[in-house]
Amino acid sequence: MINVIRQLIRPVGTTDVVVIGAGHAGLAASYFLSKHAIEHVVLERGEVANSWRNERWDSLKLLTPNWQSRLPGFEYAGEDPDGFMSMPEVVEFIEEYAKFSASPVQTDTTVQSVQRHLGAYRVVTNRGVWHAKAVVIASGACNIANKPRASQDVPEGIASLTAHDFRNADQLEPGGVLIVGASATGLQFADEIRKAGHEVTIATGEHVRLPRTYRGHDIQFWMHITGLLNEGYEEVDDVSRARGLPSPQLVGSHDAQILDLNRLSDNSVKIVGRLMGISNGTAQFSGSLRNVCALADLKMNRLLAAIDDWIENNAVLCDAPERFEATRVDDNPSLLMDLEGNDIRTVIWATGFRPDYSWLDVPVLDRKGRIRHEGGVVDAPGMYVLGLPMLRRRKSSFIHGIEDDARDLMAHLDHFIREGSMGSGSRAA
Prior knowledge:
The chain is of the alpha/beta class and 429 residues long. It has 2 domains: 13-143 and 355-419, FAD/NAD(P)-binding domain, CATH 3.50.50; 147-349, FAD/NAD(P)-binding domain (3-Layer(bba) Sandwich), CATH 3.50.50. The protein contains 9 helices and 23 strands. It has helices at residues 24-35, 50-54, 87-101, 184-195, 219-225, 239-243, 261-266, 289-313, 402-419; strands spanning 13-20, 40-43, 70-71, 74-75, 105-106, 111-117, 120-125, 128-137, 144-145, 159-162, 176-180, 200-204, 213-214, 217-218, 270-273, 275-279, 282-285, 336-338, 344-349, 353-354, 373-374, 377-378, 383-385. The strands form 7 sheets. Strands 1, 2, 5, 6, 7, 8 and 23 form a 7-stranded mixed beta sheet that branches. Helix 1 packs across helix 9. The chain is globular and about 65 Å long.
């Protein structure tokens, strides 16, 4: 394993900025803090890239191609720019970036509380206390797997796993699998587990359908070149909804042009509506499956039409326009399923994630436990957050999207440090 270059850091001390988290977001923040010559420390509960290292399933690959993998001052330099990084490759990429940036990382340091103290911040860890003028929260958006209330009603004898628990199909008992959630994670689980020989049912709610390739290029190429990924949080009609959208139905592979419900159906995966609840061992599904799928198709086709318009307006030479088969839905999709009667031995909750702010003792959380912020500037003087979906731009949740967000926010932080408090909720330039 690559050893991370780090400064000698006092276990108890004072610094200008404490960065919480040494994933790609925390390291990007550290890079720009160093550019501004701001003294700081990066605290990491485990190792560098801890979440990528320990909280992902075995076969997962990035949804973005390698040519798009970059961090401030650093980019992919391998021989497969159109490929997709596996999780070990992502860990190595981030570790190499930690070496490149010489970030002052203190590993195996768990933050236990962050409090306001004498006009600054007191950060208590298992290795001592830090005092800082500012705090950057870069601890990630996927710390806790969401489990709906129905998860409490899974009958005894049926395994109940989250996306954090699942590693590969070998860990599953023989028998059927119910996957709840049809975003990127749910579809990839369904595809992999079906190929391993299990009967699979996938409960489908709102989802974002996208082709892997379109008109001869990866869909991310078009999202990048048209500027769609740079759309700012102030430009969307409903930023709260945009931040809550599920991840698109993509897989890090060019083996198939599209991974969608049709492909799963072709592989004998059973498609049902959104899980509404479980009662006496019977799962109950919504009857809105057809409408949900039609809306996903409509939004995909609107996106493809926007790309077509951009191509025409910019006279780009590429393949001809194309459209994909509408999502096929049974005339009478199942609304009820006796789990044991259908030999369901495992339920997997691919129902998203949420951050863990249990250690944050500053009143900046809304009623749903989300940080109140304006483009990453938290509703508390000198506090910032990085690495959340649609933080400042549509690309904020991608590795390559962190650079612009971190640049903006660390410039704002630099002004805060040098000029004094700008007041809570001040926008980044």
